[in-house]
């Protein structure tokens, strides 16, 4: 991962924590600063794990419909 | 004038025109319909009397008008994209499908809606069938059977509703008896709600590239329209929609066929809309309608872009593609507009529509659905915004070598008419994203007191997308595509059905054979009697040609089912 990506990410998280607060949160996590970062990273990792590690080996069929 | 009449009339005269005129008419007819809808005043309508019932062929209100506008606009762009098509059947079926979709949204009564729906079902099945491959034929048969079941449920529900309430008006339908539930089940089947969603990723990728664009536009969104019209506030739809949204992205993350991947995202995005219908507040319903409009625009754009890749390379699995960014940069740019729109990136239309639905659910304190919908938006960006473009246009080694060594040597940018159609839709996606008031002013429950560009909301989406991209980069090797199919819940009924058909097939074949012989014998003797009444055709009776007159088993089944549907329709509605 290039360093500029890490720097940009850090700037974005800090900016979101300062300026990105929801003044009228309707669900509990909206009051957590920069919660979008958790959703984005943990959500994506969880989806990849669920789809590619848990489900894909069990649901992967033959190379083509004809062979099924 | 009925706005969809232009499209249906064009489909009727199409077979008598030369190719260039046909192509021009395919673009002009829906454009004329768009103009007609745009100039219609709300509250206008067309009523006819039929067997003692008042049927409303045209009901114009804000809800039907916005759907009519986007249907006609999308059909115009799709026909421009499909300029290269030469087959009359494909061009006519696409027009009839579009006309049927518009007839559904302008229908003011349940009978007109049912007839228009069946027109849409048959013409869309024909579009799949015209994909021309054995896989397309089989998928079209499955598609038709599923939609005949949906049509039967629709008919049953309408019959029961008319018997219970005594009217055909298509307004809010109560869920206090079986007719309402039958209608809801039929609409859920057409909206591709899991576990009865298998027909969608099965059929849409097998149609031709232009037909896929049409298919992605009409059926599921017409179902969403009917849900908004009839079942707003049905709470069961909140859970169904939230599960749908996540289910679609999980399977899209596994999928390596580009058009199947996008098809699973139809399931996911329609989940947002179904959830919004269930929430039932004005904000959520406006969000549902806005998201349906935006989804039609960006999904058509995405199907067009991957269709252009398939048109040029002949390949649709990500495992066989890669490195196309040098050869098809414009297509990549236009694809990315669609991908950022569906991902809900700021300045694109998905940002201003998806947040309406999620905010509607949040304001109604549906915490778990909001969590699932937000997670689904992460998965959307992961698979459509990152995985698909990375493995199709990026990832130059070694997939680029496979495309360039095995594919066509003159691999170039998409044809101009395809780029033009994609450009129009991309402009609409960006235009609505930058100036959302254009869309909000057309929504059915004004005024829309919602401002998507708050610093909180913009930062939320930027963070979600940025950290999702980081996670993608770290897991890109896990996401690498492999050739192969992914089993879905449709296997639960396809495998038993195939086993059952295997056992019944010889008997059905024999029955069909006997039936065909009887019909042919009858026809021959009638013709002979007409030609030569004295000998009653016995002298020169032609020999029976076994295979010439024997219809396939599927045709016989479909024919019988159609007759049953028509008979049941007559019994329920007109008895």
Explain this structure.
The complex is a heterodimer of chains A (68) and B (575). With 68 residues, chain A is mainly alpha-helical. Helices cover 62% and strands 0% of the residues of chain A. Chain A contains two helices and no strands. The longest helix of chain A has 25 residues. Chain A is elongated. The mean pLDDT of chain A is 82. By secondary structure, chain B is mainly alpha-helical. Chain B has three domains: 224 residues, no CATH class; 252 residues, no CATH class; 84 residues, no CATH class. Helix content of chain B is 71%, strand content 2%. Chain B has a two-stranded antiparallel ribbon. The radius of gyration of chain B is 25 Å and the shape is globular. The mean pLDDT of chain B is 88. The chains are: A mainly alpha (68), B mainly alpha (575). Chains A and B meet through α1 and α2 of A and α11, α15, α16 and α20 of B.
What letter string, H or E per element, gives the SSE order of chain B?
A: HHEEHHHHHHHHHHHHHHHHHHHHH
Cα shape of chain A:
elongated
Task: Kindly estimate the percentage of residues of chain B that lie in beta strands according to DSSP.
Answer: under 5%
Beta-strand content bin of chain A: under 5%
Most extensive chain contact?
A-B, 46 and 46 residues
The whole-angstrom Rg of chain B is 25 Å
Quaternary organisation of the protein chains: heterodimer
Question: Uncertain segments of chain B of ≥5 residues (pLDDT<50)?
Answer: none
Biggest sheet record of chain A:
none
Structural class designation of chain B: mainly alpha
Shape of chain B: globular
Question: What's the average pLDDT of chain A?
Answer: 82
Share of helix of chain B, binned: over 70%
């Amino acid at each position: 991962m290039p360093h500029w990506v890490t720097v940009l990410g850090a700037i974005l998280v800090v900016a979101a924590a300062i300026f990105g607060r929801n003044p009228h949160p309707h669900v509990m996590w909206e009051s957590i600063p920069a919660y979008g970062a958790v959703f984005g990273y943990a959500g994506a990792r969880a989806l990849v794990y669920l789809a590619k590690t848990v489900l894909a080996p069990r649901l992967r069929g033959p190379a083509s419909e004809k062979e099924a | 004038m009925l706005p969809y009449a232009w499209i249906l009339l064009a489909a009727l005269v199409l077979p008598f025109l030369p190719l260039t005129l046909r192509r021009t008419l395919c673009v002009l007819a829906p454009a004329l319909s768009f103009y007609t809808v745009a100039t219609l005043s709300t509250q206008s309508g067309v009523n006819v009397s039929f067997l003692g019932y008042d049927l409303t062929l045209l009901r114009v209100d804000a809800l039907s008008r916005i759907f009519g506008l986007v249907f006609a606009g999308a059909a115009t762009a799709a026909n421009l994209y499909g300029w290269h098509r030469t087959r009359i059947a494909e061009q006519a079926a696409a027009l009839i499908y579009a006309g049927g979709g518009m007839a559904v949204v302008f229908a003011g009564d349940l009978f007109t809606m049912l007839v228009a729906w069946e027109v849409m079902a048959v013409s869309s099945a024909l579009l799949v069938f015209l994909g021309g491959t054995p896989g397309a034929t089989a998928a079209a048969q499955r598609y038709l059977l599923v939609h005949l079941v949906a049509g039967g449920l629709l008919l049953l529900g309408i019959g029961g509703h008319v018997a219970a309430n005594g009217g055909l008006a298509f307004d809010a339908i109560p869920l206090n008896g079986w007719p309402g539930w039958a209608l809801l089940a039929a609409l859920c089947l057409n909206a591709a709600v899991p576990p009865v969603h298998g027909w969608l990723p099965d059929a849409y990728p097998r149609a031709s590239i232009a037909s896929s664009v049409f298919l992605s536009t009409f059926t599921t969104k017409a179902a969403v329209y009917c849900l908004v019209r009839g079942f707003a506030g049905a709470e069961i739809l909140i859970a169904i929609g939230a599960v749908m949204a996540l289910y679609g992205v999980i399977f899209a993350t596994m999928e390596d066929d580009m058009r199947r991947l996008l098809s699973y995202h139809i399931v996911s995005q329609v989940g947002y809309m179904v959830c919004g219908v269930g929430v039932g507040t004005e904000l959520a319903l406006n969000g549902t309608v806005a998201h349906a409009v935006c989804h039609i625009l960006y999904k058509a754009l995405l199907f067009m872009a991957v269709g252009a890749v398939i048109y040029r390379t002949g390949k649709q699995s990500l495992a066989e593609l890669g490195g196309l960014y040098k050869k098809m940069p414009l297509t990549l740019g236009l694809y990315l507009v669609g991908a950022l729109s569906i991902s809900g990136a700021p300045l694109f239309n998905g940002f201003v529509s998806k947040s309406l639905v999620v905010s509607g659910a949040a304001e109604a304190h549906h915490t778990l659905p909001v969590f699932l919908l937000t997670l689904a938006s992460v998965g959307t960006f992961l698979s459509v915004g990152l995985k698909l473009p990375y493995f199709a246009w990026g990832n130059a080694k070694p997939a680029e070598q496979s495309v360039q060594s095995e594919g066509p040597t003159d691999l170039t940018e998409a044809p101009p008419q395809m780029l033009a159609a994609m450009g129009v839709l991309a402009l609409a996606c960006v235009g609505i994203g930058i100036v959302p008031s254009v869309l909000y002013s057309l929504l059915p429950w004004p005024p829309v007191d919602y401002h998507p560009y708050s610093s909180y909301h913009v930062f939320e989406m930027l963070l979600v997308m940025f950290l999702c991209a980081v996670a993608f980069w770290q897991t890109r090797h896990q996401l690498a595509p492999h050739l192969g199919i992914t089993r879905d819940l449709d296997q639960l009924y396809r495998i038993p059905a195939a086993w059952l058909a295997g056992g019944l097939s010889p008997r059905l074949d024999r029955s069909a054979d006997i039936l065909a012989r009887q019909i042919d014998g009858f026809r021959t003797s009638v013709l002979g009697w007409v030609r030569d009444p004295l000998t009653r055709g016995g002298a020169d009776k032609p020999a029976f040609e076994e295979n010439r007159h024997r219809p396939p088993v599927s045709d016989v089944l479909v024919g019988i089912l159609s007759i049953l549907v028509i008979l049941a329709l007559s019994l329920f509605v007109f008895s």
